[in-house]
Amino acid sequence: MYVEKEIPAGFFLSREAAHDAQQLTTLATALAMPVRHIVMFGIKEGTTEAQISTLKTGLAGLKSKIPEIKSFELGFDLKLKGGQTHPAGKNRSCSWAPTFDTKEAYEVYETHEAHIEVINDCIKPIIEPGTRAAIQYEMEE
Asked: How far apart are alpha carbons 36 and 16 in whole angstroms?
């Protein structure tokens, strides 16, 4: 995806400053686009309300443990008839969509101990095998 962005007002990069790593980092951060990660998965039959509650608490709690998460949306399928009988396949049960300032911030989250703990303790015990789908993309502001 190509998105044209302007260099922030008041930012000047002289020939001498071009070698200044701090200025280059500042410019790169200013031009970076936010990243959204969306993951969806099915929840297997027999999963208890307590397990769903633990999942909700675990995912929502990641924002306080991983400062790179700027915001998130967490949702569960409404199980409307069309979503359960769609010709392309049944809807997933759960969607988790955190937002990050940069790709690097997403990569911190991806391998963060708290994230791995939620996967192992809250998701793996209840996920319907073969239903996980995910994407990461840059968001236009």
From this structure: 36
Assess if CATH 3.40.50.1390 describes domain 33-138.
Answer: no
Q: Where are the domains of the chain?
A: 33-138
Residue 2 binned pLDDT confidence (cut-offs 50, 70, 90): very low
Q: Global pTM?
A: 0.77
Q: What tokens were used for 75?
A: 């949702």
Please give the full DSSP string across 21-53, using - where no structure is assigned.
HHHHHHHHHHHPPPEEEEEEE-B-TT--HHHHH
Instruction: Please state whether beta strands 71-76 and 133-138 pair in parallel, antiparallel, or not at all (unpaired).
Output: unpaired
Question: Alpha carbon of 131 to those of 14, 20, 23, 43, 113: distances in Å?
Answer: 51, 47, 44, 8, 23
